[in-house]
Specification:
The protein has about 110 residues and is mainly beta. It is built from one helix and seven strands, in the order E-E-E-H-E-E-E-E. The longest helix is centred in the middle third of the chain and has 11 residues, at about 45-55.
């Protein structure tokens, strides 16, 4: 990933498969903390606002029914992993919920 973008804009997986994501934060600026949160299509902005409101104690991840899976926070130069079971067939979104990042750091998950 670059400092304010995911380097992969779309993922394709099979429903019910195990999805393993490795998030490598190659940033060097101390404020470039990131995560990856998978959400139901069309809920990205709502979830982003809820996650910012959840704050740092919850690693900017809200208790929201539209969230499918979420990683912890990756500080600059950190690598974190996320593993989850792919949801039902359909289209989903992913984003970084760290404050101010969700409009630029987003992508799509297509489940077949």
């Amino acid at each position: 990933m670059q400092e304010m973008a995911f380097d992969i804009k779309a993922l394709e997986v099979k429903a019910g498969s195990t999805v393993k994501i490795t998030l490598v934060n190659e940033g060097i600026d101390a404020s470039m903390i990131h995560n990856i949160v998978f959400v139901k299509m069309g809920t990205r902005q709502e979830v982003a606002m809820a996650c910012v409101a959840a704050g740092p104690d919850k690693q900017f991840v809200a208790d929201n029914p539209n969230i499918i899976a979420s990683s912890g926070l990756a500080n600059p130069q950190d690598t974190i992993q996320l593993e989850f079971i792919a949801p039902a067939k359909g289209s989903y979104e992913y984003l970084c919920t760290y404050p101010g990042h969700s409009d630029m750091m987003k992508g799509w998950l297509y489940v077949e």
